[in-house]
Write a structure and sequence with these properties.
By secondary structure, this protein is of the alpha/beta class. Helix content is 57%, strand content 13%. β2 and β3 form a beta hairpin.
């Protein structure tokens, strides 16, 4: 007998529903997260049984569990699933059973499950970006403290001469304590950031996709690494437009009759990919390849919209470069 499993994943506990081929709910239980507790519900099901779960907080452990024990995991797109299965009654039991029913009816809006290696690379790159953001926050706090006393210098505060200048400032005791503590925290962040940079750069040397993407204006090694990790398998996108839509860089459309108004970009999909492309666009917009179109768009629509447009064009170029690298790899593998 065919069975279908829906799991509503939460941080500490998950709701598990098992539905048979006729749509009858066989089991609907709430259990603590863990290998033994989940297997106590689904462990006796046939090998290869399909399991659906939403891309919610902390789903990585569940994918590994299902793959290790021979189940077929299906990651659900949460926004699209809500559009299909909107119900007046909403609770964990209903949600888990709905996932199983959608899986049984082949109506499940699935998302791509990135392999473990891709997920680990994303984790490293996001961790590095968050550490740098934290260091920037600390630097801004130093600037804010010194601004209260009218202290400023033309160069950076955090180079060797800048640190000597900071040490020589005559500040009240409380403000001196704040600045010194912020500097200590920044120094503590330098070691893990440098170690991550060395590891990531070493990884980039063996990846032809990274080398190819650095040909684009505004794209350095770390930017290329983020683009590669966030996109993953580029062949899952049939066109550059589909990739841009996944990255949230395409405008929303709410058409009615003959009217087709375009709104702001959707901002769905990977926040990290959209962010890194917009950062790269701030440099790329000054390159000969994009400068003219940027200036034209900036005059007509404003600088922010123009920068976003350059980010999308960068992503389009990146898509075609990645497809070319992939095609070359396939050709070499068939020889």
């Amino acid at each position: 007998m065919s069975v279908y499993v829906g799991i509503d994943v939460h941080r500490k506990r998950s709701q598990i529903a098992v539905v048979d081929h006729d749509g009858a709910v066989q089991v609907n239980r709430n259990v603590p997260n863990g290998v033994e507790t989940v297997l106590s519900v689904i462990g006796d099901l046939p090998i290869g049984a399909p399991v659906a779960f939403e891309a919610a907080y902390g789903w990585g452990w569940l994918v590994e569990l299902l793959e290790d024990y021979g189940f077929e995991p299906h990651l659900v797109h949460p926004l699209r699933c809500k559009a299909i299965a909107s119900a007046r009654l909403k609770n964990d039991k209903v949600d888990a059973a709905t996932l199983a029913h959608l899986l049984r009816a082949d109506l499940l809006p699935e998302a791509w499950i990135a392999p473990l290696g891709v997920r680990q690379q994303r984790a490293l790159l996001r961790h590095r970006c968050q550490l740098v953001r934290l260091r920037t926050l600390l630097r801004n706090r130093v600037h804010a403290v010194l601004a209260d006393y009218g202290c400023d210098r033309s160069g950076s505060y955090f180079t060797t001469p800048g640190r000597v200048w900071l040490d020589g400032l005559d500040l009240p005791d409380a403000s001196r304590r704040v600045v010194d503590d912020l500097l200590v925290l920044m120094d503590a962040l330098k070691k893990p950031i440098d170690a991550l940079d060395q590891q990531l750069v070493a990884h980039a040397r063996g990846d032809p996709r990274v080398k190819t993407l650095t040909q684009l204006p505004g794209v350095g090694t770390l930017t290329a690494l983020v683009i590669v990790a966030e996109i993953g398998d580029v062949s899952r996108f049939p066109s550059a437009r589909k990739l841009a839509a996944w990255a949230g860089l395409t405008p929303t459309v709410r058409s009615s009759d003959m009217t087709v108004p375009h709104g702001h970009i959707s901002k769905q999909g990977s926040d990290w990919l959209r962010w890194i492309l917009c950062e790269a666009a701030r440099t790329a917009k000054r390159s000969p390849e994009f400068a003219a179109s940027y200036q034209r768009l900036a005059r007509r629509r404003g600088k922010k919209i123009a920068t976003t447009a350059i980010a999308r064009r960068l992503l389009t170029h990146a898509y075609h470069l990645l497809r070319a690298v992939q095609a070359q790899h396939v050709r070499q593998g068939t020889r």
